[in-house]
Amino acid sequence: MDPYQLTATQALTKLKDGSLTVEEYARSLLERIEKRDDDVQAWAYLNPEYVIQQAKQLDSLPPEERGPLHGVAVAVKDIMYTKDMPTQHNSPIYEGDDPKLDAASIITLRHAGALILGKSTTTEFASITTGPKTRNPHDTTRTPGGSSSGSAAAVGDFQAPIGLGTQTGGSTIRPGSFNGIYAFKPTWNSISREGLKVYSLILDTIGFFSRSVDDLQLLADVFELEDDVPPHNDFSIKGSKFAVLKTMVWPQAGPGTVAALDAGAKLLRDHGADVEEIELPPEFEKLPEWHGIVLRSDGRPTFLPEYRVSKDKLAGVLVGHVENEYQISRAAQLEAFDGIASLRPKIDEIAGKYAAILTPSVVDEAPVGRETTGSPAFNAIWTALHTPVTNIPGFKGENGLPVGLSLIAPRYHDRHLLEVSKVVGEIFEAEGGWTRQVYQ
Amino acid sequence: MDPYQLTATQALTKLKDGSLTVEEYARSLLERIEKRDDDVQAWAYLNPEYVIQQAKQLDSLPPEERGPLHGVAVAVKDIMYTKDMPTQHNSPIYEGDDPKLDAASIITLRHAGALILGKSTTTEFASITTGPKTRNPHDTTRTPGGSSSGSAAAVGDFQAPIGLGTQTGGSTIRPGSFNGIYAFKPTWNSISREGLKVYSLILDTIGFFSRSVDDLQLLADVFELEDDVPPHNDFSIKGSKFAVLKTMVWPQAGPGTVAALDAGAKLLRDHGADVEEIELPPEFEKLPEWHGIVLRSDGRPTFLPEYRVSKDKLAGVLVGHVENEYQISRAAQLEAFDGIASLRPKIDEIAGKYAAILTPSVVDEAPVGRETTGSPAFNAIWTALHTPVTNIPGFKGENGLPVGLSLIAPRYHDRHLLEVSKVVGEIFEAEGGWTRQVYQ
Question: Residue A417 CA to chain centroid, in angstroms?
């Protein structure tokens, strides 16, 4: 197997036992990128020479100075500041902008020995649903989803083992599903979001892409995610209780998602789980509307500077936020903000009764074209509720494209959720009907 | 009157009618700074030549290109990124650090024509209560408060008309009181906090210092603060209802604050207000404890990068946050986070019955020494509740140092609060017993 095909965990084993150098690993990834870049176009900035230079520097470290992510290559969404690469937010206002600053998460990753490969594409400010240039590696006529388009496509296409994303609506879990990979949105604010472009403080959450749950656990270690009760690494589907939740946005689900949710629930039952279909209590009914209100009203102060400086270079929807085009009153804004807050302890209580809640990740397969990155309807509710979410790949839609399902746990049950995701992921990937391929 | 003594609003009048150039204004302020800097030490970075260069550039703008803050000089707290000056957070880890980035608020201020004077001192990361070098201009043996120490001292000492601060506990209102100036903490997230060092996302709020409420209204215009019902600029004390609220931390109040609250309530009554003493309902009792829990638990992810990179250069209290020294459970963290959220609509309802709530700004006068910037006890509750707060100067303590009082309004009643603050400020400044002086 070529090094570029390795998961982060697999690569680390080889990097540690000396059977692979960081430079060899980086060259393998860069070759993969060169081969596939015309089709996928996942990168906003990538400097192969600089990557090799960094790789050599990592190789030169004596073993005792190597970190827990020594040589692990990472694609960084281009709304996250990196002191050695431009950060352009897919905005003409910031074309070529190159502030000498690392986001908090980048400092932590570098300190752990990660190799920052380059900046991956995003929709404008990670805040709109018009796609960037990037194409879905599984079908280049389709979107990879967004707003974390490039990170998800790069990981799905074996151009990087790890991708960094963010989610304010559905910007991590949705592209995770569209690209057939794992995606993880941890509990809100459990990882510092400092040094990322802001859309909404109360919603924005950093997220990760990978092709294995082991890799997510590796990142959870590095970022010190910690539950009150540490999981025992002995989770078994047999005898566990799962909830299946269609949510209030279920009428939007297409055939791919309808079939995946059925199949996922059946697989869990087949493997001995007790699977119960539940509904959200009626007070959750306004949640999607409230999410939209918070998003739009938070966009007012957020994009005021860009509006002032270069309104003509700002996406229409963001101009609309600043101008409060929907005339959202402060009273309505606060009703939404406080209403969502009142639901958070309630969803924790509900989710706490189960090993996890199984719920859709997406409306369906990735849509054709790059005009829209797809609907975040099944993600926005969980972003608002601050719960950790994983996308588990394994199913396919009517056109053979990947369809994932989400697992949900209460806030700060991130490690528990990853443990459950590992076991569920093995089943879904083995028996769900979709198989990951390395496109040549 | 020398130009340095002008409020921003007064300076603007002269800058607009041509009787003062930005360069003349800047030179006057720089002379004032030079004269007083040995005593007050408000600045972390100040480059007089660069200030003059910027001033000349503003003077060269044709009148039609001048912004609403044309030439208004601003002291910027040194946790806010400025692309043309270092941002050092009063941390040895960031000594000399100079990322080429403007905070969102700085972009907006520059676009409005403001003259960024320099970076003002802060406690380490605006996150601890050990003071920086700065001294209280009214008594240099005392602290100016913190964490926005330099901005408050500079405005109190006529070294700048406007100062930018932040508040996570009591970092704007407390130094406002200690320096005898107006301070304004607007509704949480009503102004973008992007590009400021994070302590706690749900608490951190940008704030302003000035020597007049007109100046705060000017800033509220530039940052587009907007209530549902715009104030009519005809607020009258006579016939208005005010609440006096001692809060659950009242036992900490010293003689200066006890006297000021009495005197403030009496002045309002004397001017025809209906003043009612109220208490917070019992469910608010845990608020101070909850604020502390949120602060400490948010400090865990926030300072992880600095902890990893340079633990030995990080303040002990912040090391303690990362190591969770108080062993705050996730359950306790969420109880605090959700508990505070549930109180926000309740305080809005209570505050909405009055023109404003009058409550202490500080425990007492500024304490002697620079070991501590004083107690944020009377501010932290309002920071957590997200309400707008103004500090109104006008009273004095047993040692003749300034003591202010806070006015509180419901969230997103910022413009209303400023209107009330203007009228109340005129009364307190005229009859409260403390008079601002220009020290020579």
Answer: 15
- Nearest chain B Cα to A205, which residue? B201
Q: Which of B105, B171, B177, B375 is catalytic?
A: B171
Q: Is the model's pLDDT at B68 over the cut of 90?
A: yes
> In terms of CA atoms, which chain A residue is nearest residue B305?
A108
Local confidence band at B70 (pLDDT 50, 70, 90 cut-offs): very high
CA distance B183 to chain A (A): 20
> How many other CB atoms sit within 10 Å of the CB of residue B349?
10
Q: Is residue A296 part of a domain?
A: no
Q: Out of A99, A331, A338, name the one closest to residue B341 (CB).
A: A338
Q: At A117, which CATH number?
A: 3.90.1300.10
CB atoms within 10 A of CB A259: 18
Contact across the interface for B330 and A228, Cβ inside 8 Å: yes
Residue to test with chain A: of B89, B190, B201, most A Cβ within 10 A:
B201
Is B423 part of a structural domain of the chain? yes
Q: CA of B160 to nearest chain A CA: how many angstroms apart?
A: 23
Boundaries of domain holding A101:
3-285+333-431
Determine, yes or no, domain membership for B204.
yes
Name the pTM for this structure.
0.98
Number of domains in chain A: 1
Average pLDDT, chain B: 98
B185 noted as active-site residue: no
Residue A155 lies in a domain: yes
What string of DSSP letters covers A237-264? STT-EEEEE--TTGGG--HHHHHHHHHH
Catalytic residue among B147, B149, B240, B361, which? B147
Q: Average model confidence (pLDDT) for chain A?
A: 98
Q: What is the least distance, in Å, from the CA of A139 to any CA of chain B?
A: 37
B171 is catalytic: yes
Query: What distance lies between CA A51 and its chain's CA centroid?
Result: 23
List the one residue out of A375, A378, A402 whose CA is nearest residue A389.
Answer: A378
Task: Give the model's confidence band at B205: pLDDT under 50 very low, under 70 low, under 90 confident, else very high.
Answer: very high
Q: ipTM score of the complex?
A: 0.98
What b-and-e string marks burial along A314-341, b requiring 16 or more CB atoms within 10 Å of the CB? bbebbbbbbebeeebbbebbbebbbbbb
B100, B111, B412 ranked by CB distance to A334: nearest: B412
> Out of A189, A228, A333, whose CB is closest to B331?
A228
> Burial of B2 by CB count in 10 Å (0-12 exposed, 13-18 middle, 19+ buried)?
exposed
Question: Can B266 be counted among the known catalytic residues?
Answer: no
Cis previous bond, B60, omega within 30:
no
